[in-house]
Write a structure and sequence with these properties.
Blueprint lengths: L1 H19 L51 E8 L19 H9 L1 H16 L5 E7 L5 E7 L5 H10 L1 E4 L16 E3 L4 E3 L8 E2 H6 L6 E14 L4 H11 L6 H4 L5 H15 L15 E2 L29 E3 L8 H17 L28 H26 L12
Parallel strand pairs: 7-9
Antiparallel strand pairs: 1-3, 1-8, 2-3, 2-10, 4-8, 5-6
Helix pairs in contact: 2-8, 3-4, 9-10
Length: 415
């Protein structure tokens, strides 16, 4: 009791003296820790099939066949069905099409894909490497094209896909509480959003999550799973690589195009649901459900989020459309950095700009201590770094111009 309080006061005093002496790191708090966040059960759902689990080895390639063949795979995964659709991707009956589930599945599709990689590696027992793209189907639902290094039995791919799901442990957001002209308002006295009528503060995010007893949404893949073994260097391999790369040079708005009034109506209905679907714990859309999101300030506008998930042009597609595993190329981040550095050096050498390698083996790097008189002012360091970057850019632009083919005039010169 009292003795513990005295010890805490002494610790606070010592901490204050350390900070005055120039210590910059955060110090452990002497106060009693607050109650931690509510822990969720990691037990698998009863309605999901179980998966075998093996220890993941460090290898990144699959089996070798006939002593020299090591095939790879091309896999396509889709979202679940939300209702029957026509050939143009529009629902047969828009009134029964499950737009709410379609919107939530699109928002959480990237998390579902991450869980699929995790499950696949645990089942096959090696560190599967992949190159994948996320693109929209005609019905505007995301689907995944991925190339895997190594061969996996088709029934294992289907088994992992059927057993993969992602639970969204968020507060329930089925019923909108505020809308139109009646929206929560910011109260600067308590730094919180309050009800416009009662002036009572809204439920905070932590309080809302604490009361969650079941997931607000569960997303899983659909039944359509396409998997095919491919040998490198074949015509079929080139064709499937085209599936992965054909959309990379296009924006999402160019991919999702409505060519008929029915498609435009379908996209409008999906977008209307995405507008009221929260995309993260910090999403201002939570205010429409009477919940104050994380990081809310006076500049937060209820119901207006700048995230890609709510845009009409993207229709919920994730920002990461290209997914590449760290070991896909067989190189580390340091190797990639060295490759980029060597490429730039070669470009500069082509125009006569030599950048000799500096010998740093005799240098000793130390962190600048507070109050060091030899340390230059921060403003000088920033200006020096900016000037250095400008010089680098000018040299690189000069090398690019020298490497570019000369432009030819379309007007013939007079003899």
């Amino acid at each position: 009791g009292g003795q513990a309080d005295e010890l805490r006061d002494e610790i606070r005093g010592v901490d204050e003296e350390l900070r005055q002496l120039g210590m910059r790191r955060s110090l452990p708090s002497p106060d009693l820790p607050e109650r931690g966040p509510k822990k969720r059960s990691t037990k698998r759902r009863q309605d999901a099939p179980n998966l075998p689990r093996r220890k993941v080895a460090k290898t990144t390639v699959g089996r070798e066949y006939a002593g020299r063949f090591r095939p790879s795979m091309f896999i396509t995964l889709t979202c679940d069905t939300y209702g029957r659709v026509r050939e143009d991707g529009t629902p047969v009956d828009m009134s029964t099409y499950d737009y709410r589930r379609a919107a939530r599945d699109a928002v959480h599709f990237s998390s579902l894909v991450d869980r699929w990689w995790q499950n696949l590696r645990r089942v096959v027992g090696w560190d599967v490497q992949y190159f994948a793209t996320v693109e929209p189907q005609k019905r505007a639902a995301p689907h995944l094209h991925t190339a895997l290094r190594g061969s996996i039995p088709h029934h294992v791919v289907r088994q992992v896909t059927e057993a993969t799901y992602h639970q969204v442990w968020w507060p329930n957001h089925d019923q909108v509480v505020y809308g139109g002209d009646r929206l929560p308002v910011w109260d600067p006295r308590i730094s919180s959003f309050v009800d416009p009528d009662t002036r009572e503060p809204l439920t905070t995010w932590d309080e809302a999550v604490e009361d969650v007893d079941e997931p607000a949404h569960v997303v899983s893949f659909g039944r359509q799973v396409h998997s095919k073994g491919i040998l490198g260097g074949t015509e079929e391999a080139g064709r499937h690589i085209g599936y992965l790369t054909k959309y990379l040079t296009k924006s999402t708005g160019e991919v999702i195009e409505a060519s008929s009034a029915r498609q435009r109506e379908h996209h409008d209905r999906l977008h209307a649901e995405l507008v009221v679907t929260p995309c993260s714990p910090r999403c201002p859309v939570w205010l429409l459900y009477g919940i104050q999101p994380l990081g809310a300030t006076s500049r937060t506008t209820p119901g207006h989020c700048k995230g890609r998930a709510h845009r009409r042009a993207t229709l919920g597609l994730p920002g990461r459309r290209v997914l590449v595993s760290r070991k896909w190329s067989g190189k580390t981040l340091a190797d990639h950095k060295a490759d980029r550095k060597a490429f730039v050096r070669d470009m500069l050498a082509g125009v006569g700009i030599e950048k000799p390698e500096q010998d740093t083996s005799r240098l000793i790097w130390r962190k600048v201590q507070p109050g060091d008189r030899d340390a230059p002012p921060r403003a000088h360091l920033l200006l020096h770094a900016i000037a250095e970057r400008i010089a680098w850019r000018a040299e690189y632009d000069r090398a690019l111009l020298a490497a570019a083919p000369p432009e030819t005039s379309a007007i013939p010169q007079a003899a």
